[in-house]
Specification:
The chain is α+β, with helices and mostly antiparallel strands. It contains seven helices and 15 strands. Strand 9 and strand 10 form a beta hairpin.
């Protein structure tokens, strides 16, 4: 093994070990971010739909990325980690939309990016709980408007203090976002939030650590 290959392997293992120790699982994204080949800000933009595929903002040659991920997978299997395919999606007004990792969108390559490796020390119950958490569908995030604006779709005026949903950089009023029936639940009443969450089919979370929820036609839709 050449010095450059040894150095690459060391960087991969160091990033993977750090992520595993921090959260009891590790993914390809964790490794690339830990190696400095992917910026967390770009990952966040990709998750919000501002970047069409994550490969576009990765640093380094395709060969280096491929070699890094191959080393990562070999390391994970040698460690006896549990592979778990995880859904990557972003919230939209019509429901979760799958995120794309590479431009070619080859199924096997996409699967390799989606696969997380869970700590072998986890009990079956804790592993199941973690898998459920990682696969939880994202909720829409709404923002309280700091200054008057307007909906990018219907043109309705959005007054300061009201809420909007950003979808692909376009501000949407709650009606166009399909969230008009929800009611605002201020932060602080955990019991109310828990009851609303249990009986609701529709929800949104505000950027101010509060929530939107409500009941329409007898149907809970927190």
């Amino acid at each position: 093994m050449s010095n450059s290959q040894q150095d690459l392997r060391l960087r991969v293992v160091r990033a993977a070990e750090a992520a595993l120790a921090r959260q009891q699982y590790v993914s390809a994204i964790d490794v690339l971010c830990g190696m400095g080949l992917l910026a967390s800000t770009h990952v966040d933009s990709w998750r919000k739909g501002r970047i069409d595929f994550l490969e576009r903002v990765m640093q380094g040659s395709p060969g280096k990325i491929s070699s890094s991920l191959s080393i990562f997978r070999d390391w994970a299997y040698q460690k006896g980690l549990h592979p778990s395919e995880t859904g990557y999606a972003r919230a939209t007004r019509v429901g979760p939309a799958l995120l794309q990792f590479t431009q070619a969108a080859d199924p096997e390559t996409e699967k390799s990016y989606r696969t997380h490796y869970l700590s072998a020390a986890l009990s079956p119950v804790k592993r199941q709980q973690l898998e459920k958490k990682l696969n939880r569908a994202p909720q829409p995030v709404v923002f309280e408007i700091l200054r008057d604006s307007q909906c990018g779709e219907c043109g309705a005026a959005l007054e300061q203090g009201s809420f909007l949903l950003m979808e692909a950089e376009q501000p949407l009023c709650l009606a166009c976002a399909g969230l008009a029936e929800l009611e605002f639940l201020p932060a602080g009443d955990t019991a109310l939030t828990r009851r609303a969450s249990k009986h609701s089919q529709r929800a949104a979370v505000s950027s101010a650590s509060a929530a939107l929820g409500g009941v329409t036609s007898g149907r809970a839709c927190w």
